[in-house]
Amino acid sequence: MSVARSMDPDQIGFDPARLARIDEHFGRYVDDGRLAGWQVVVTRRGEVAHSSTYGLRDRESGAPVEADTLWRIYSMTKPVTSVAAMMLWEEGRFELTDEISRWLPEFADLRVYSKGSVLKPYTVPAVEPIRVWHLLTHTAGLTYGFMQTSVVDGLYRAAGYDLYPPAGVDLASACAAFGELPLLFQPGTAWGYSVATDVLGRLVEVVSGQSLDAFFADRIFGPLGMTDTHWWVDGDRADRLATLYAPDPTTGQAVRQDRIGSLAHHKPVLHSGGGGLISSAADYHRFTQMLLRGGELDGVRLLGPRTVRFMTRNHLPGGQDLGTLSTGGFAETTLDGIGFGLGFAVVDDPIPSRVPSSVGEYYWGGVASTAFWVDPAEEVTALLFTQLLPSSTYPLRSQLRQLVYAALAD
């Protein structure tokens, strides 16, 4: 399955010549060696206005990026996990204010880092339990080991949790380990990008009685026809997977990263709700169209429209933005003027970031430089796929927004 243009761009308010600038601009990244290849899809009012590929999915073999190329989407898994959780919420299985220790007892009696070192941290009791909404909004006080910005990050790394978990650890064991580590801050008082969505995935497992991979397959991927979204690749699908690259620190040229990239060829023990999926442009296009249509696509409804609207409002305490509440470190977003909903960054004010967008637009990205956004006001969705670690290397996402919004002509 692929994503082909379904409508002349000018019929849905795009200037075709201006859309062509997308390919010209990002083509230069490939031509000068900074990227191996990429894929872009832009839609409006449910119609594909622009769909293009350029460059190579594997530069060393010369294999081109094709319409059905597969991509490691990393943290673009998070919105899928958030949708899964809210599907259970719609069934009345929990409330957003419920303490997660009701289902995950390892998160009872939590402690919060106060001072000290990795070797001798000093902690205090948590005054507020982690609640479901804290997981969905990254306000739980959890963190990522790869951040390398705090003592708590160091404690995660010391426990074996860096960009990937220790070998052989499953999701239940990982969550048990997270529950033993101190929180970075008191729940609900700050925003910190974290393993919260992995913990949310474990909550989905316990509440639903299914493994996360089974829930995704039965309740989301199967109904939406997302036939190319899986946790690993094998057989013929392995040949369609794009190679993972990182910039050479001296030349800036994309250099393949097989040590990390090869993990996608093996069935994982831990199904990471925060970053484990491999998908195609066509599949993630269907996921974004479901969101744009208020939780329904082709007669299949995953969420009610009011739930989607609720998820895509700013849920940060006091309506503050990430620039005020973020603890710093890596995140798949700019911070100023950006709120956070239940699984998505949400634009409250596009002016502080100096990047064009609409109030109410929601989005996220993955660490290998993939990205998506949904703009309900303009009825626009956009997808960007490439495989370059980390996503902060180049301003690909802001540049794509710049080019897409400049092409809107109605």
TrEMBL record:
<dbReference type="GO" id="GO:0016787">
    <property type="term" value="F:hydrolase activity"/>
</dbReference>
<dbReference type="InterPro" id="IPR012338">
    <property type="entry name" value="Beta-lactam/transpept-like"/>
</dbReference>
<dbReference type="Pfam" id="PF00144">
    <property type="entry name" value="Beta-lactamase"/>
</dbReference>
<dbReference type="InterPro" id="IPR050789">
    <property type="entry name" value="Diverse_Enzym_Activities"/>
</dbReference>
<feature type="domain" description="Beta-lactamase-related">
    <location>
        <begin position="22"/>
        <end position="397"/>
    </location>
</feature>
<protein>
    <submittedName>
        <fullName>Serine hydrolase domain-containing protein</fullName>
        <ecNumber>3.1.1.103</ecNumber>
    </submittedName>
</protein>
<keyword id="KW-0378">Hydrolase</keyword>
<dbReference type="InterPro" id="IPR001466">
    <property type="entry name" value="Beta-lactam-related"/>
</dbReference>
